[in-house]
Amino acid sequence: MSLAKVLPLAFVMIAGPQILSAIFLATSENWRRNSAAFVAGAAVSVTVIVSIAFFIGAGASREGTSNTTLNVIIMVLLVAAAIHTYMTRKTSKPPKWMGELETATPKRSLRLGFLLLGVFPTDILTSFAVGGSLARDGDTWWHILPFVLVTLLFLALPALFLLILGEKAQRALPKVRDWMNDNSWVISEIVFGLFIALTANSLAG
Q1: How many of the other CB atoms lie within 10 Å of CB of 72?
Q2: Is the Cβ–Cβ distance between 40 and 50 less than 8 Å?
Q3: CA atoms lying within 13 Å on the CB side of residue 18
Q4: How far apart are CA 21 and CA 123, in angstroms?
Q5: 122 near 46, Cβ under 8 Å?
Q6: Among 16, 64, 190, 48, residue whose Cα is nearest residue 131
Q7: Which sign, positive or negative, has the C-alpha torsion 122, 128, 130, 133?
Q8: pLDDT truncated to tens, each residue of the chain (205 aa)?
Q9: Would you list the DSSP string of 87-106?
Q10: Cα separation of 7 and 116, whole Å?
């Protein structure tokens, strides 16, 4: 049940410049290698950060930290991430550097995937909330892997659509990019709200 609760947060991980970058890379000159490198970089950073959060939470539990304290910490992380998402919602246009991704190299794509999924404020807060939540509920480390895999699947979707649909995907991706740029924050806030409500219920119970 705890794993099922955190999986929707995978959408939050990619909402914003992460999925927009994936779409730009999917339309780049060397899109197969660039997209694969981007996802690979993201795989490393997400796995590392969620693992760190998990082991910190597990260590705190072994030291006798109560579930109430862990729930409060998770709640603070989620609220901070929700506030950050709301405050940055009016960024209506992608940064100029995204336009340069159409001529990106695999090396740059790898570095970008690592940084966007690793040091982006919302992703750090979300990763720590996920890792801490799984540790609090007594799950084993490998339970972070489905969360990581779902996050990576979302990032890989633009390239997968190109592989499957070809030119149709090329025409559709710009529309998807614009929609995500305008509306992804709303879905992220809904996901945060649900997870905050679940955490509050744990505190109350």
Answers
A1: 13
A2: no
A3: 32
A4: 15
A5: no
A6: 48
A7: negative
A8: 466 778 888 988 988 888 889 988 988 888 899 999 999 999 999 999 999 999 999 998 888 777 788 888 988 998 998 898 888 777 655 566 666 777 789 999 999 999 989 888 889 999 999 999 899 888 899 999 999 999 999 999 999 998 888 878 778 887 887 787 777 788 888 888 887 887 787 777 6
A9: HTTT--S--HHHHGGGG--H
A10: 19
- What's the one-letter identity of residue 85? T
Sequence letter at residue 33: R
Distances (CA, A) of 21 to 37, 82, 101, 106: 12, 21, 7, 13
Residue type, 171: R
Return the structure tokens found at 40. 């690979």
